[in-house]
Design goal:
This protein is α/β, with parallel strands linked by helices. It has helices at 5-18, 35-41, 46-66, 86-105, 122-134, 151-168, 173-179, 182-186, 234-246; strands at 27-31, 71-78, 110-114, 142-149, 199-202, 221-224.
């Protein structure tokens, strides 16, 4: 039986009251999972699921902004996803590029692309970079779009970039080995200059990270939601925020 919308509204207000405003996360990462399974249960194509999920992104960002979140990272295309059929991949990339351009056109968000765009067809990579540049001066919430992203790939990229920089500076391999540290690698991650995520939400009921932000999530709280991404509601977000606010974050201490 479908729950009347006014009951959801009442529940949302109750959830909002239960969230301590002083214990809200600054940076939230979301693994947008379940588009294909959502489409399959309706007898639709994978592309239809991806499109429905993409259409939902702007609404969820509105909810995040209303909740006072300052940075949202959306994992929209993983390095593993690049192994899918060329037909599905091209359709998915077009959907992602359209979505990112629409987000940029709103003027509300500062878009930042994280991932290895060398893994993405040039046409789509150019569109993503253009939107990032166009929104660089925006004052709204920062929205990281993870495309061609994998946690292991990011760490490898960071170390490779650091080694090349030090080599150009004339450092020897022994010197680099002696001086490399956590801070040096952190400064070469895709998210450099940003705080690590406080909370990661994964939709669809899967309870694993799948390599998302491996370096940045050492102290991050995790929340797994049963809803497929296209069905993710504001109540689901508020429940995640309430759960986060109630946790004791010891940060490894």
């Amino acid at each position: 039986m479908r729950v009347p919308e006014f009951l959801y509204s009442l529940y949302e207000r109750r959830l909002t009251r239960e969230i301590d405003p002083d214990r809200r996360p600054c940076h939230v990462g979301i693994i947008l999972d379940g588009n294909r399974r959502w489409a399959k249960q309706l007898g639709s194509s994978a592309s239809a699921g991806h499109r429905k999920g993409a259409d939902h992104v702007s609404e969820v960002l509105d909810w995040c902004a209303e909740a006072g979140i300052q940075i949202v990272t959306l994992w929209m295309l993983s390095t593993d996803n690049l192994k899918r059929s060329s037909e599905e991949l091209v359709a998915l990339m077009a959907i992602i590029a359209d979505t990112v351009e629409n987000l940029g056109a709103s003027g509300r968000w500062k878009i930042r692309i994280i991932g290895d765009l060398k893994l993405v067809p040039d046409e789509f990579a150019a569109r993503l970079r253009a939107t990032e540049e166009r929104t660089a001066a925006a004052n709204g919430m920062t929205v990281n779009i993870a495309v061609g992203y994998g946690g292991r790939h990011e760490i490898t990229d960071a170390v490779r970039t650091y080694l090349r920089e030090r080599t150009r500076d004339g450092a020897t391999l022994d010197q680099v080995a002696d001086e490399i540290n956590i801070g040096a690698i952190t400064e070469h991650m895709y998210t450099k200059g940003q705080p690590d995520p406080d909370l990661i939400i994964r939709t669809s009921g899967e309870q694993r990270m799948s390599g998302f932000m491996l370096w940045q999530t050492v102290h991050t709280e995790l929340y797994f939601c049963e809803a497929y991404w296209p069905e993710f509601r504001r109540t689901d977000l508020l429940r995640a925020l309430r759960d986060y606010a109630a946790r004791e974050r010891r940060m490894g201490k």
